[in-house]
Design a protein that fits this description.
Helix 3 packs across helix 4 and helix 7 packs across helix 9. About 50% of the residues are buried. Helices cover about 30% and strands about 25% of the residues. The protein folds into 3 domains: about 200 residues, Rossmann fold, CATH 3.40.50; about 170 residues, Rossmann fold; about 100 residues, 2-Layer Sandwich (GMP Synthetase, Chain A, domain 3), CATH 3.30.300.30. It has a 9-stranded mixed beta sheet with strand order 2-1-13-12-14-15-16-17-18, with helices on both faces. The protein has a 5-stranded parallel beta sheet with strand order 4-3-5-8-9, sandwiched between helices. It is α/β, with parallel strands linked by helices and about 550 residues long. A hairpin with a 2-residue loop joins strand 16 and strand 17. Pfam families: AMP-binding, AMP-binding_C. It comes from Streptomyces pimonensis. InterPro entries: AMP-bd_C, AMP-bd_C_sf, AMP-binding_CS, AMP-dep_synth/lig_dom, ATP-dep_AMP-bd_enzyme.
Length: about 550
């Protein structure tokens, strides 16, 4: 775990670097970092609003008093099981109340949840088990037609550190698996304090990087920085005790957890509603039934939500804010949200590594529809730099660098990444290409590694995708590079269409009319039934590049 200072700020650990002492002191003095830990949140809210509804999962409901009671029982049971402060626990649960309850119980114990996503399989989970030396693994029995129990059994055999597998549902009679229900025994003995209390600067959780290459990097987040992340976002969103947040995307996803998400809502004393599926039919039904006021989705879901809501069958009048993030939202699509859904659009641009940008609820409409927001904290430091590392003027495209009170200074147990992912003075290299307005709002242009070099002409894939999505026949679009013997790289547009698929000539004409240079029109067009997604809901461009490569010119 490493050591902490008397104030609870990381004093440097063998597993991950903390903030420099002078920066940590500055964040404390400004009130960004507070002396609070996540394990205390349920008890604190239970004392303030015991009968208010905290959590909804289907027909199951928890008041803050009931939430605190279950968290404390789980805390005692996990201690009896042998878990202790600093132990890492891989949590791979879908959008179920058990994720939230178990998460807070681990926080109270001082154990560290490792956020695995439901779509991860043996390759990713084995990597997490190896890097973290996790002692326990929490799974559902089945989810989305996948049985997690054989996976857990195989991992337990290969990784001796994994002493416990906690199963929500049927264990299938497997020896050594712990049924979650048995941990809810109210007669569990009181916990014997295992040592020093959990400190605000302790490692609270490990998030996974949202990249699409290789195995995920592990992102260390402390109680003080992650709580501030959620609190600052909640302030921009104006959350209060009357707020009802619908968790649509996976709860292990940083966007759903703290932007402001579950944690921001519970800190504000509001209600969290869990959606078992991101399908628009399910989500819109829950919005109507639970009087949801705010929710968050990613851009691929937007066209389907708009289509589902057009018939007016659902009463969505309670919905005040729809957050859209995790990828760039096309401007044309953004402009359709408020007239169709009757709520305010809030664009979100953030990363599990830290920096979070939101459009404000009172920003002008054009800012909301054409930018991805500005930093939520006055202590966020943002640089936009060219290839030579020098700052570029506002309005020009450059790579985004950042540091601040909730942005990591190094990955977990990966010191080799320090040189490639961070500057010498602690700025994180995001790999995002952005354009900054004089107001501080950022417009995301693309990724440094996603530029297509077509015969020497550089094409920003995100720019072209945005225009493709304006075509009335295209529901979803992604532009990737494919090898080309003459150009070096050519561009391939993968599109999802409900009707006829536009060809290259039609798209070239369409893009020309929208003012794009001719070389930016896709060289090839490939129709697919569904866009492949990464476990965090982003378009899986690696899969598309491989598909384009295999097509060998026939896409």
């Amino acid at each position: 775990m490493g050591t902490t200072s008397v104030h609870g700020a990381p004093a440097g650990t063998p597993d991950w670097p903390g903030w420099p002492p002078e920066a940590a002191q500055r964040y404390r003095d400004a009130g960004h970092w507070r002396d609070e830990v996540f394990g205390d949140l349920p008890a604190r809210q239970a004392a303030a609003r015991p009968q208010a509804v905290a959590l909804v999962d289907g027909d199951r409901r928890w008041t803050y008093s009931a939430l605190e009671a279950d968290v404390e029982v789980l805390h005692r049971s996990l201690h009896r099981l042998g878990l202790r402060r600093g132990d890492r626990v891989i949590v791979q649960l879908p959008n179920r109340a058990e994720f939230v309850l178990l998460w807070f119980a681990l926080q109270r114990l001082g154990a560290v949840p490792v956020h695995a996503l439901p779509g991860h399989r043996r390759h990713e989970i084995a990597h997490l088990a190896r890097i973290t030396e996790a002692v326990a693994y929490a799974i559902p029995d089945r989810h989305a037609r996948f049985d997690y129990r054989p996976l857990a059994a195989d991992l337990g055999a290969d990784h001796p550190s994994l002493r416990h597998t906690i199963v929500v549902g049927d264990t299938g009679g497997r020896t050594g698996f712990v049924p979650y229900e048995t941990l809810l025994d109210p007669q569990a003995p009181a916990v014997t304090p295992p040592g020093p209390p959990v400190a605000p600067g302790d490692l609270a959780l490990l998030l996974l990087s949202g990249g699409t290459t290789g195995t995920p990097k592990l992102i260390p987040r402390t109680h003080q920085d992650y709580a501030y992340n959620a609190r600052a976002a909640a302030e921009v969103c104006r959350l209060d005790a009357d707020s009802v947040y619908l968790a649509v995307l996976p709860v292990a996803f940083n966007f759903t957890m703290s932007c402001p998400g579950i944690l921001g809502t519970l800190q504000a004393g509001g209600t969290v509603v869990l959606s078992p599926s991101p399908s628009p039919g399910t989500a819109l039904e829950l919005i109507e039934r639970e009087k949801v006021t705010i929710t968050a989705i990613n851009p691929p879901l937007v066209p389907y939500w708009l289509r589902e809501s057009e018939d007016g069958r659902r009463d969505l009048s309670s919905l005040a804010v729809l957050q859209v993030g995790a990828a760039r939202l096309a401007d044309d699509l953004a402009r359709r949200i408020e007239p169709t859904l009757g709520c305010r659009l809030q664009q979100v641009f953030g990363m599990a590594e830290g920096l979070l940008n939101l459009t404000a609820l009172d920003d002008p409409g054009e800012i909301v529809c054409s930018t991805q927001g500005r930093p939520v904290s006055p202590a966020d430091e943002v640089l936009v730099v060219g290839r030579d590392g020098t700052a570029v003027p506002d309005g020009h495209v450059g790579e985004l660098l950042t540091r601040g009170p909730y942005t990591l200074r190094g990955y977990y147990r990966s010191p080799e990444l320090a040189r490639t992912h961070f500057t010498e003075d602690g700025f994180y290299r995001t790999g995002d290409l952005v354009r900054r307005l004089p107001t501080g709002h950022l417009s995301v242009v693309g990724r440094v590694k996603e530029q297509i070099n077509r015969g020497g002409e550089k094409i920003d894939a995100t720019e072209v995708e945005e225009h493709l999505l304006a075509h009335p026949g295209i529901d979803s679009a992604a532009l990737v590079a494919a090898p080309d013997p003459e150009l070096g790289e050519c561009s391939v547009a993968f599109v999802v269409c409900a009707g006829p698929v536009p060809g290259t000539r039609e798209l070239a004409s369409f893009l020309r009319e929208r003012g794009l240079a001719a070389y930016k029109a896709p060289d090839r067009v490939a129709a697919i039934g569904r866009m492949p997604l990464t476990p965090v809901g982003k378009t899986d461009k690696n899969a598309l590049r491989e598909r384009a490569r295999r097509a060998d010119g026939r896409a």
